[in-house]
Design goal:
Layout (H helix, E strand, L loop, with lengths): L1 H12 L3 H13 L10 H7 L4 H18 L1 H14 L6 E3 L2 E3 L1 E4 L2 E4 L6
Antiparallel strand pairs: 1-2, 3-4
Length: about 110
C-alpha cells in the first residue's frame, strides 16, 4: 500500500492537480494522532525538487505516515485514487488526443485531427 501511495503522491506533486487536491490532503493529514506526523507543508516544500529527490522524499514521507497512523495512510490512498482524473487518451496517426503529460507539464489537446 505504501508503494502505491508513494507513486500516486509523487505523480500528483508534479502536476497542476496538486493545487485542487491539496485541501483534501491537508484535511486528511490534519487527522493524524501523532504530533510528530506529517504535514501538508512538507509536501509543499517537496514540489520543487528534482525527480529522484522527490521520489525518495515522498517515499520517506509515506513511510513516516504509515508508522504514525496506518488508518490515515489508507485514507490518503483512497483520496489519491479518487482525485486522479479518469479521461481517455487516444493515439491516432502518431498524434495524441486527450490530456497528456510530458516533462511535468500537462498539455490538453482540444482540437480534432484533420
Amino acid at each position: 500500500m505504501a508503494e502505491s501511495v508513494t507513486t500516486a503522491l509523487t505523480g500528483l506533486l508534479v502536476s497542476d492537480a496538486y493545487t485542487s487536491a491539496r485541501p483534501r490532503l491537508s484535511a486528511i493529514l490534519n487527522r493524524s494522532r501523532n504530533d510528530e506526523g506529517v504535514r501538508i507543508e512538507d509536501l509543499d516544500r517537496l514540489r520543487g525538487a528534482d525527480s529522484a529527490t522527490l521520489r525518495s522524499a515522498v517515499h520517506e514521507y509515506v513511510h513516516r505516515l504509515a508508522a504514525s497512523d496506518e488508518h490515515l495512510l489508507r485514507q490518503l490512498r483512497d483520496a489519491l485514487g479518487a482525485s486522479q482524473p479518469h479521461s481517455a487518451l487516444n493515439i491516432y496517426d502518431n498524434q495524441f488526443y486527450g490530456p497528456t503529460q510530458m516533462g511535468g507539464t500537462q498539455i490538453v489537446n482540444m482540437g480534432g485531427g484533420t
